[in-house]
Every structure is written in C-alpha cells, then in structure tokens.
Specification:
With 455 residues, this protein is an alpha/beta fold. The protein has helices at residues 3-16, 22-33, 42-49, 53-61, 67-74, 80-87, 91-99, 120-130, 165-172, 182-199, 278-281, 287-316, 324-335, 340-350, 362-372, 375-394, 397-407, 412-454, and strands at 102-105, 114-117, 133-134, 178-179, 204-207, 219-220, 226-228, 251-257, 264-268. It starts with a helix and ends with a helix.
C-alpha cells in the first residue's frame, strides 16, 4: 500500500468506530486532501468513505477552529453543532461567538457562577444578529475590487456564504449571500461613503441615530430634516402627510451615521419649508392649537376617570358565590397574565402598593393582598381582571367594560355625569386660585400710576 492508500484505510477504519471524535475525522480528511499524489477532491473523499459531500466539507471546516474552540470541543463543553457553526466564522469572530454558547447562572448560596451550554439555535441566532450581513442590502458595488484594495471584490471572497454552498447551502434561503466578516464589510461601507461625499461635496449627510450631534459635525440629526418617502401612500389620507410630499427644497442625502449607512434618500432640511417644517412655522402662542390640545387632554382624562369608576362600580356589584380557595386559584392565575399597566389599575382600584407603603414585587404584593382579603373582595378583583384581560385580548376596552357594566346593572350615565361635574368643579377651583395672583401683579403698576399722577 502507498501512503495515500494507508491514510484512506485508516480514515475508513476510524469512521467505522463509534467513539471517533469529529476533530479526528476532520484531521483525517485534511491529510488526504493535502496529498499531492493522488489528488483527492471533496466529492472523491465522500465517495470513498460513504459520506455525503456536505458531511465531508463540514468536517474539513472543523480544522479552521481556533485553539480555544478546539479545546472546548475536545472537553465536551460544546457539541458538534456548536463547533460547525463556529468553524464557519473568521478566526477573529470565533472566540466572541464561543462565549455566546454559554450563559452564567448562580446557584442558591453559590459565590461562583455555573456555565450552562445553550442550544445550537441560540448560537445561530447570535451569529445572524451580530455577525452575518446581507450582501444584497449593501449600498456599495460588491464587484468593485478597488473599493478596499486589500479586501478585493465580494464576488471572489471566500468569506461570503454563497462562496461555499456545501457549507452554507441551508443558510442561503431568501436572504441570499451573506458576509461573515463585519470588519471588512464596515471598511467597504466607510470607503463607499467617503467616495460618495468626495464625488458630491454638497451632498447632505444625515443621521438615523437618536441623540444630538457633536459640535461642528456636518451630519444632520433626525430632528433637523424630514425624510421623503419613495413609496406611494396606501390610503388617501396618507397622501396628505408631509413625508409623502415633495417640496422645492428636496435634495439628495446620504446616511453616514446610524442604520442604513451609505444609502441615498430624498430629504428636506430647510427649516423655512412650510410643507415639511410647518410645525416650526406656527407661533408658540397659537391659542387655537393650545385650546384643541387642552380639550383633547381633558376628554382623555374624563374618559379614563369614568372608565376607572365604572370598573370599580362593576366589580363592587359582584356577589359572593365561589369558595375562597377557588376564587384565589382563578384570580392569581388570571392576574399572572396581566401586563404592568393593567396590573397597576387593579392596584389603584383596591389601594394596593404605594398607598400602604409596601415596596414588594407586584406579584407578591397582589398574592399577599388576596390571601388576606375576604371572598367578596377577591370576587371583585376577579371580575375587574376579567374585564381588563378581555379588553387586552380583543382590543375593545370600551366594549368589554360596557358589557360588564350592563351585566351588573351599573349606571354608566350617572357615573359619567358625576366625573364631569368633578372636573368642572376642579377647573373652577384652579381658576379661583389663579385670580388673586393676577390682582397682585397689577397692584405695583396701579400704585406707580397714582404716584406719577400725584407728582
């Protein structure tokens, strides 16, 4: 037997062993592939060993694992699924991805955390979120080999998923080619932006990130421009919105900070534009606008107060029927499904929480309250939770509350009238408190006028 035949026989024999480690398979395949005579291909190795070409290519890729990943693999800290995903990444990405394979958990009373291996799907999600970049969305020319000369073109790059379909066939899908080297991608993005700005020095630079800009920065923050949409409005009323209109100040702009860097969009950055910056044209003392806003706030406050009062009256009308243990069971399980806002309404209805100076967690606080309450109170809480949860599920809070009020014969009209009376009385009291203040402001002026007249 020649050297190639010996290696081939050893590899086949190892593959038949049950306890062979995937790294040993990878090294065996690599040694055969490295032979000068005879020269093997992945397809030939697959045919000789009875494996699929995808299997052979995946095992060969394991030889690209960094030492830390190899050690974790041999120590059974990660599985073959984790190792295959790590091996597909560039070396400088693997160690960070390796740490994403685990989470730390503290046992009760333990000072040091325990590392827990996460499922392969968690690592896949981390890689998709933090590493892979969709090339079809890249604003630069993927075939331009001179954009970053040291990187070459993306079409010839072995680090894109489409370059090796045996390894990434399942990952291509609708996303298509993806870049596995964020550093190279970001370098090309920066070069593309610099090239575009150099070609058009007057091109407006904008940011899609939140927050202010550094002093002297040429990049306009979000509140200094209005992006004009390219798509057509779906509804007639949408056509009246500023972002669907084009004005005489509209100009091309390139995003240089935030998301979608390097893409070109139409924007209006002129604060004098009456179409896209109409709110800045309105005087701060626009009485009609302020009155409308105040009216809307008042109506919302009355509606909220009325709803709360109707809900309380409805829950107060609930009779005692079930035993306390049954009521506790149903109420605690329904309460667990409430979000924070609706749970806060229950607390407000029954004076639970801050009113009692208790700083416990909401779930424990509610459980403690229910266990001390009588059957009647628990029943009222149960009905209130049911109304709130129904409103949350069907998105018809007014309808759910109205049906509950009708069922328990609650006079909604009387409650509404009472709330409105209270709001009117409150507004009159506020107006009365403000009146003396105005008189005091006028007194110095009057005294000065009398003194001047006497002189």
């Amino acid at each position: 037997m020649n050297d190639a035949e010996v290696l081939e026989a050893q590899l086949v024999e190892n593959l038949l062993r049950r306890d062979v480690h995937p790294m040993e398979e990878a090294q065996g395949f690599a040694r055969l592939l490295a032979l000068d005579e005879p020269k093997y291909s992945i397809e030939q190795l697959a045919d000789r060993t009875g494996k699929s070409p995808v299997y052979v290519a995946s095992r060969l890729k394991l030889t690209d694992l960094v030492p830390a990943a190899v050690d974790a693999f041999y120590a059974n800290e990660i599985g073959v699924g984790h190792a295959l995903l790590l091996a597909k990444l560039p070396a400088d990405q693997q160690e960070q991805a390796l740490s994403a394979c685990f989470k730390e958990a503290y046992n009760s009373g333990g000072a040091t955390p325990t590392r827990i291996l996460l499922p392969v799907r968690n690592l896949q999600f981390w890689i998709e979120t933090n590493v892979l970049l969709i090339l079809k969305d890249a604003p630069f020319d993927k075939r331009d080999a001179q954009l970053v000369s040291t990187a070459g073109s993306c079409a010839d790059c072995p680090k894109r998923t489409g370059h090796n379909k045996l390894l990434f066939g399942d990952d291509l899908g609708k996303q298509g080619d993806q870049c596995t080297d964020p550093r190279c991608y970001n370098a090309k993005l920066a070069a593309h932006v610099a090239k575009a700005v150099a070609a058009k020095p007057n091109l407006v630079q904008i940011s899609t990130a939140y927050g202010g800009q550094k002093e002297g920065s040429p990049v306009l923050p979000r509140n200094k421009y209005t992006a004009i949409r390219d798509d057509k409005p779906q509804k007639k009323e949408d056509a009246q919105r500023p972002e669907f209109k084009v004005c005489r100040f509209a100009t091309d702009a390139i995003i240089t900070e935030g998301s979608d860097i390097g893409t070109i969009h139409k924007v209006c950055a002129n604060p004098e534009c009456p179409i896209h910056h109409a709110s800045k044209q309105r005087p701060a003392t626009d009485a009609a606008f302020k009155a409308e806003q105040e009216k809307r706030r008042r109506e919302e406050a009355i509606a909220q107060a009325t709803g709360l009062r109707v809900l309380k009256a409805t829950s107060d009308a609930v009779p005692v029927r079930l035993m306390k243990r049954d009521l506790l069971f149903v109420t605690e399980h329904l309460a667990a499904a409430l979000d924070e806002r609706r749970l806060a309404i229950i607390f407000r209805l029954h004076g639970i929480g801050k009113a009692n100076g208790n700083a416990e967690a909401p779930a424990k606080l509610l459980a403690s309250f229910l266990r001390k309450a009588d059957e009647s109170t628990i029943g009222r809480v149960l009905v209130a939770i049911t109304v709130l949860q129904t409103a949350h599920s069907s998105n018809e809070s007014a309808k759910a509350l109205r049906e509950a009020a009708e069922f328990y014969k609650v006079d909604v009209a009387a409650i509404t009238a009472k709330v409105k009376e209270e709001f009117v009385a409150k507004e009159k009291a506020q107006a009365t408190r403000k009146a003396p203040g105005k008189a005091k402001v006028n007194q110095p002026h009057t005294a000065a006028a009398k003194k001047a007249k006497a002189a």
